[in-house]
């Protein structure tokens, strides 16, 4: 009787409906694309034929022309980052220097049509038309709802439940340690899960990154940066994997109105997917290095970047890897 009583006690009433309990998924991810120097403009001393604005008129004033070959790729990620190397302004008083880049405010549509989501404005051409031109550029970007960051303009955005902090500096010789430290502290104090730094640094047309770049790049990672995006040399430099994080020493040019015939027109798109599980960043190798060319024709530069394939893709990848280390 005792055994029977216990069996009856633990019998389940099959008429009771239990809810289906789904396992909790604590995985979050964000996919980022990064490209190099984009001068959405020109120096007004350039001859009109072959200039950046010449190609707009040649293509029926279609601002989508410039990124037409890459915009679908950018549409597939969560955020596309570019270095905006120039100004959107009507102001005519130039800073005295070799090149001064600007475009009318309508050219911000190149970024919008091209699926570029955010830009760094910390570079040696952001003040080509002084503080007025710099402020005009920020106003134009604000009106177009394109976020920007650089200098003391830090930017924070939450994507897919991941809080990302951005900062950038013009730092040719790798000296801005105090400013970098302040930026990282600010973003950490604001509970950013991921920190991305854009550094405008290095020596123009040097394929090998300088000791100063390496020192600063390591400092950034050591202090909490998760990805370092480099530009300024106008050519490709290497990628370093350091403490399981990536330093892109130079992405080269991209849609670059600063030169109708650059001496080296190779470039690449870097993509990385960052994954968090239970709030912890996975230190994985979920990256793509996509060789590209700044022009959709061999010569001259028509300012329309294109993804490479075949032998040319392999050649550019070999160039990247020649100066790369750690992976």
List the helices and strands and how they pair.
Blueprint: H1 2-9, E1 27-39, H2 52-58, H3 71-75, E2 79-84, E3 87-88, E4 102-103, H4 108-113, E5 118-120, H5 130-143, E6 148-149, E7 155-159, E8 162-170, H6 177-189, E9 194-200, H7 211-222, E10 227-231, E11 239-242, E12 245-248, E13 253-256, E14 266-277, E15 280-281, E16 287-293, E17 306-307, H8 310-322
Parallel strand pairs: 1-2, 1-13, 2-5, 3-4, 5-6, 8-9, 9-10, 10-12
Antiparallel strand pairs: 1-14, 7-8, 11-12, 14-15, 14-16, 16-17
Tell me what the structure shows:
This protein has 8 helices and 17 strands. It is of the alpha/beta class and 327 residues long. The protein has one domain: 4-Layer Sandwich (Purple Acid Phosphatase, chain A, domain 2). The protein is globular.
Average the pLDDT over all residues and give the rounded result: 94
Please identify which CATH superfamily we are dealing with. Answer: Metallo-dependent phosphatases
CATH class: Alpha Beta
How much helix is in the residues? 10-25%
Q: What is the global morphology? A: globular
Distance between the termini: 71 Å
- Radius of gyration, CA atoms, in whole angstroms: 24 Å
Give me the CATH architecture, please.
4-Layer Sandwich
Write the element-wise H/E pattern from the N-terminal end onward.
HEHHEEEHEHEEEHEHEEEEEEEEH
The total beta strand count reads 17
